Amino acid sequence: MTQPASLIYKPLGIDTLQEHVAFMHRDCHICKSEGIEAQTRVELRHHNKSVIAIVNVIHSDLLDCGQIGLSLNTEQDLGAKQGDPIEVMQAAPLDSLSQLRTKIYGHKLDRHGFETIVSDIAKGRYANIHIAAFLTAMASRRANVQEVIDLTAAMVAIGERLSWGVSPVADKHCVGGLPGNRTTPIVVAIVASAGLTMPKTSSRAITSPAGTADVMEVMTPVTLSLDAMRAVVDKEGGCFVWGGSLALSPADDLMIKVARPLELDSDAQLVASVLSKKIAAGSTHTVIDIPIGPTAKVRSKEQADQLEHLLNQVAFANGLNLKVVRTDGLQPVGRGIGPALEANDVIAVLRNHPQAPTDLRERALRLAAEVLELCGKCPAGDGYRLANSIVVSGQAWEKFLRICHAQGGFTEPLRAPIVHLVTASVAGTINAIDNRRLARLAKLLGAPEAKTAGVQLQVALGDTVSRGDPLFSMHAEAQGELTYALTYLDSHPPLLIESQ
Predict the structure, then answer these.
(1) Strand 67-70 to 5-9 pairing
(2) Fewer CB atoms < 10 Å away: N or C end of the chain?
(3) % pLDDT > 70, the chain
(4) Where is the Pyrimidine nucleoside phosphorylase C-terminal domain (predicted)?
(5) How far apart are CA 396 and CA 349, in angstroms?
């Protein structure tokens, strides 16, 4: 198409997540003249802005032949308003697809190959189907160590890379798979109180009922600009910011959105995703928590060995000081599973509440100790004592509040309007807890989109219960979600009670 043709924009109010989609009538003159059909890639231009979009063809009177509809994100990125002319033309061929096909067929990619793919993803040139193909091609150990090193470096190079003018710059991350494991806000408060710099950028949930950003958003704004983030860190030494609001490893944000419905999280992509974000955020020293358990993300010592080796190799090659900590993944951490419920656990620990979850407190103290020692804030073996004293004295809670207020204020978590208690049907001992089923149950209840939804545990492994004793409560914001979750619960019990 040499001269761009125009169609008149008609808003349709269709949300396609991050994928750019254009809706055109099947009898549209552009479709006919250019052979455009469903799933064709087109370039759309409006004033000085352009995006690559996938065409969906309308076979009804929803649109006239001279009109075009846009998904909500496409409308926003183009700045289009009703009645505006939108120029439409065939999109240029994607040269990086040859690199993608190379990986799909099981061949190795070099740094240049990954850079071309990651660049096209970050620029919005890949449809979801292309991104899904890339994620799948990198899964099941189909990427070697050098490929993960190159992918990580490519993801860092494409986006913004922060510098804080100090060293060390601390960070901490958990590979996930363990419901309620919300240690990060506690660790940040402790480490920042100790005088270290910890500008924490966190993700939203990918396959879990809550990510750190989801939990913190219950209590304080987390969608901050880079300038706002810098102001908070300069003032308080730490922050709790959603990484998606920044331009750090932008291709990773798009890949995460595709990986979420697939529930796909391979070691190669996990390592590249985590470490690219740490490096891009300016971290020099990072502690990685790997929970191990039969229903955690990492299920065995052998799998943990492989993941730890990959993390260490990629971190070293990219100049990041890394410490891997293995933790118990047999059961959830804390009592709450879901944004508001996990936020309550965090607050209870920081406030030194007598009923605060002991396991969450101890795990957070251990991880904070590792960060303090890795960064040279205290001698080896003295980190736990220092971390504990900061929490007991109330310094951690004060620092947490100051960071929240610097980000826009602190709000106490709300409670769900619907609560259903689940009790023991038999007497016995809690012999096993299925993390995956509990996470699934919390998601069916509405978490993380419904902030107060989720599950609150009232028992732990090894506890003895009598018939009728409370096991956990289900929290929902809509009756339909509770009903749906109860149907799942009937055939997928998350707790195994060994009868007495």
Answers:
(1) parallel
(2) C
(3) 99
(4) 429-496
(5) 10
Separation between Cα atoms, residue 24 and residue 26, nearest integer Å: 6
Report the sign of the C-alpha dihedral through residues 83, 87, 89, 95, in that order: negative
User: What is the longest distance spanned by two Cα atoms in the chain?
Assistant: 80
* 249/473: higher pLDDT: 473
Whole-number pLDDT of residue 31? 87
Together in a domain, 75 and 109: no
Element (H, E) at 490: helix 479-491
Do 452 and 337 have their domain in common? no
86 vs 256, residue with greater confidence: 86
Containing 368, the helix (H) or strand (E) segment is helix 358-374
The pLDDT-based confidence of 3 (bands split at 50, 70, 90) is low
CB atoms within 10 A of CB 375: 23
Contact 116, 43 (CB under 8 A): no
Q: Is residue 211 part of a domain?
A: yes
What pTM was computed for the model? 0.87
| Residue of 265, 267, 289, 345 with catalytic role | 265
Q: At 340, list the tokens.
A: 């508001």
**How high is the mean pLDDT of the chain?**
93
Of 90, 113, 142, which marks where a domain is finished? 90
**Domain interval for residue 455:** 418-499
Average pLDDT over residues 477-500: 94
